[in-house]
Amino acid sequence: MSSHHPLESLLRPAVELNTVWVCLGCAVLCIYAPWSLALTPSVGMTTAAGFLTYGAWRFRQAWIVLRYRRNMRRLPRFALPARKVPVSQRSLWLGKGFMWDSQHTQRLHESAQPAAKVYVQPSVWFKRARRLEQSLEGGAIGKHIASLLRWDSPLNPVRPLPPVGGRPALHAVEWKEHDVWMPLGERVGHTLVEGTTRVGKTRLAEILITQDIHRGDITICFDPKGDADLLLRMYAEAQKAGRGDEFYIFHLGWPDVSCRYNAVGRFSRLSEVPTRVTGQLSGEGDSAAFRQFAWRFVNIVARARHALGERPSYNQILADVVNIDALLMQYVQETLEQQMQGANQKITEIEGTINENKLPNNMKGRHKRVVAIVQYLQQPEVIETLTDPVLDGLLSAVRYDKTYFDKIVASLLPLLEKLTSGKIAELLSPDYDDIEDERPIIDWQQIIRKKGIVYVGLDALSDFEVAQAVGNSMFADIVSVAGHIYKFGSDDGLPGSRSGKKLPINLHCDEFNELMGDEFIPLVNKGGGAGIQVTAYTQTLSDIEARIGSTAKAGQVVGNFNTLIMLRVREERTARQLTDQLPKVNVSTRLMVSMASDNADVNSDQDFSSSAGDRIGTESVDMLVPNNIIGLPKGQAFALLEGGQPWKIRMPMPLPDKTEDVPKDVADIAKRMRAKYSTGDQWWEAVMPPPIHMDFEPPEQASRPQDRDVPEAPVDNSGVADHGEL
After folding, report:
1. pLDDT tens digits, one per residue of 297-338
2. How far apart are CA 602 and CA 12, in angstroms?
3. What share of the chain is helix, strand, coil (3-state, %, to 5)?
4. Helix, strand or coil for residue 68?
């Protein structure tokens, strides 16, 4: 086998073994019967060494062929427990693989030829064993025989193939695989992972998240489905990395173990509040006008609450939408007297003179106090003196006819009611003054400062609309925090700050097409400047387009991902997203030529002439075609790394680790986390020595400042209400 030949021809009989057997036989003769070869014993030993050396060289060539043929049918098992996943401070480990080049395209081309069928497809005995296995499932004895046929051991010559499907040849074209590392500096350009259902996206996410946790980075995982296995893995890795106190769970499906989060409680600009609330309403066609009105109305409510020094929440916004009169009366009662002395007394006097039968139509059904406020503020001397934009906005809202107003906000009320129903309301509209609630309240800026680990399970299978609304609000909140970090840094002048150094913030967004909206575009477009590194997982390119509703915007999103990892996909257009970025290469082709011709010379003894041979040529083909992506086995992927370099990767199968302490289920996590949560209702016990007969945690572990519920902080002039650590 010569490496300089234009055709490798690895899918063939291992003819080198013939030479190996001859060399071995000659070596035996040289050692035990040198006289048969007319050699002296000393010369025979030297000659035997020469035969063995040459035989070993030929056996190495034969082994390459045999191993190559074996891998074409069954790749070697690649499995790792979580504790053996490599962790580096400079690179990100993706699995084992190799860089794809024209040589691998050549080998893949040869494996598709009819002559290579016998080496690529399962053997006849394998197929018979599978048919026999199916036929013996009925009887008791047959089940035992079938279990022997299914025995997954190298001693079983007809053992089943691994349940990964696809074409093993896609990875078998290179037997010298090695660890594949991606420099951490490439992650800030964001990573897009595409693959159909159940082909390894979540497994890849576990590998990447495990490394991020052990590296000490800020790690946030968005999981629309609420995968319990991923949650358990993140919790276990956080404990093994010594970061258990930095781990938080927000899960709509498990409110008892979940942290609380106010999606509209923190903002850089007050206008972000109505944007997050109304972002889930339809903005197409006639619905656009209703959406804009809902935005304006929520903005009026948010400005009023902010002026009153209160933090916005979904519960409060719903209450104000349903009863705007109460908000107007509260605002006037608390603020108008400071601007105009005696205003409340005059309003009370007007209220006593109101005749409901003489009210205009738009004021019928309103509280008398509201009518009195409107009449008082319409007086010329009041109009000339009073300048209050917030009050003007509230007045414009109550001047609408009440029935007309209810129709206009009808599209907003169902969404708010879903976000404020049952135990979900406790999570999304937390009571900052409730010291009985042990569940902490998370805030993205505090999570970043603390270098925390957060699992966000949105339980989209139960209620997709609520999951989508919460996910989009979180993305919008993170964008706002990213803008703040970009301008002021993550510490923002706190003592012991890192001099403006930006921390890597790893966002893992599974099924991100279900969550993304207009908020996601600036996150991937400009979030890198704040240290945000997005790893997004989705199934097809069409999912992104269907969610956004625009091909141009979908292209804008995809164009911001510098790294592409593509597992098996079922859509050809998605596969072309990778294959169209690769160059064409030349592959060698072999053409068998056979000719025969008659001899026209009657005086010659030669009646005909013939010739046969192989003609080698080249043709230009795509380095990879969509069919290669569609035929990938589970757990394998093609990737474009570091500026579009093509790599072939396979990820390890998970192995159980008997030594690690993994919770059995989410309820077990809840039990463990309740043991760590602490409130301030018995703060004095933290400084007292624990009695011997009672089971208390040590003071330094029983109550950590970052795990406590924090009272509401005062609202500053910029609109940022930050509940910092005590």
Report:
1. 899 999 999 999 999 999 999 999 888 889 999 999 999 888
2. 45
3. 50, 15, 40
4. helix
Q: Which residues contact 251 (CB under 8 A, 6 or more apart)?
A: 226, 231, 257, 258, 455, 456, 457, 459, 666
Query: Residue 236 corresponds to which amino acid?
Result: A
Question: Bridge partners of 453?
Answer: 219, 247
* One-character DSSP codes across 345-414: HHHHHHHHT--GGGS-GGGTTS-HHHHHHHHHHTSHHHHHH---HHHHHHHHHHTS-HHHHHHHGGGHHH
Give the distance, in angstroms, between the CA of residue 548 and the centroid of all CA atoms in the same chain. Answer: 18
Yes or no: say if 268 and 480 are a contact pair by the CB < 8 Å rule: yes
Burial class of residue 566 in the structure, from the number of CB atoms within 10 Å of its CB (0-12 exposed, 13-18 middle, 19+ buried): buried
Per-residue model confidence (pLDDT) at position 638? 97
CA pseudo-torsion sign 713, 716, 719, 720: negative
Cβ pair 237, 84 in contact under 8 A: no
pLDDT tens digits, residue range 386-432? 888 999 999 988 887 777 777 777 778 888 888 898 888 889 999 88
Residues written for the chain: 726
Phi, psi values for residue 186, rounded to 5°: -80, -20
Question: What does each C-alpha distance from 241 to 55, 212, 537, 698 come to in angstroms?
Answer: 51, 10, 25, 21
Where in the chain are the domains?
A: 16-73, 123-160, 272-419
Backbone angles phi, psi at 284, to 5 degrees: -105, 145
Cβ–Cβ < 8 Å for 314, 333: no
> What six digits make up the tokens of 392?
């003007």
Distance from C-alpha of 212 to C-alpha of 220, rounded to nearest angstrom:
10
Burial class of residue 327 in the structure, from the number of CB atoms within 10 Å of its CB (0-12 exposed, 13-18 middle, 19+ buried): buried
Nearest by Cα to 553 from 507, 528, 527, 520: 520
Compute CA distances 467 → 135, 459, 507, whole Å: 47, 6, 17
Alpha-carbon span 142 to 133, nearest angstrom: 8
